[in-house]
Design a protein that fits this description.
- The protein is α+β, with helices and mostly antiparallel strands.
- It folds into 2 domains: 105 residues, 2-Layer Sandwich (Alpha-Beta Plaits); 48 residues, SH3 type barrels (Roll).
- 17% of the residues lie in helices and 39% in strands.
- The protein is built from 4 helices and 11 strands; from the N terminus they run βααββββαβαβββββ.
- A 5-stranded antiparallel β-sheet has the order 10-9-8-7-11, with no helix packed on it. The chain has a 4-stranded antiparallel β-sheet with strand order 2-5-1-6, with helices on one face. It has a two-stranded antiparallel ribbon with strand order 3-4.
- The longest helix has 14 residues.
- It starts with a strand and ends with a strand.
């Protein structure tokens, strides 16, 4: 079995989310692909902009309009499925040969390839040791091993709020 790597697919502009949904639906319908196409991402970034009244609001924008990232094993079957998905114009690479992203290219995107081993489970109390939520304590609500994140509830303005935090930023209490 080949190693899964990150590839970039070019799409029609504005079709990124439709392409993501179509590929995920194909994976759902064909269980054999679930082990080969691991993740489909449309990278987003938050920007603060001013509306016409001068109020600040946070808006999510696509980091790379017209592109979708795929974590997959490259073989004839996965290439065919992705390439023939409605809205996909092709893989990024010379000719028809897809080129995987390098570690250096993935680092600014916040995509980590190494898996962090954890010693906690859902329901455990954990402390955040790095990042924006440093020194926060919360209870694990959900674990996502593909994204290497834990969703915890933290108290924010007197309310319980779910926050997604990287495994590397937390430790068990």
């Amino acid at each position: 079995m080949a190693e899964a790597k990150w590839y970039v697919v070019h799409t029609y502009s504005g079709y990124e989310n439709k392409v993501k949904a179509n590929i995920e639906k194909t994976i759902e319908n064909n269980q054999g692909l679930a082990e080969q196409i691991l993740e489909v991402r449309v990278p987003m970034m938050d920007e603060v902009e001013l509306d016409k009244n001068g109020a600040r609001k946070t808006v999510s924008r696509k980091m790379f309009p017209g592109y979708v990232l795929l974590n997959m094993e490259m073989n004839d079957d996965t290439w065919y499925v992705v390439r023939n998905t409605r809205g996909v114009t092709g893989f990024v690479g010379p000719g028809s040969k897809p080129v995987p992203l390098t570690e250096a290219e993935m680092k600014p995107l916040g995509i980590k390839t190494e898996n962090v081993s954890i010693d906690f489970a859902e329901g455990d109390s954990i402390a955040v040791v790095a990042g924006v939520w440093k020194d926060t304590v919360g209870v694990v609500q959900k674990l996502d091993f593909n994204k290497q994140t834990a969703t915890i509830n933290v108290e924010l303005f007197g309310r319980e709020t779910p926050v997604e935090i990287s495994f590397a930023e937390v430790r068990k209490l």
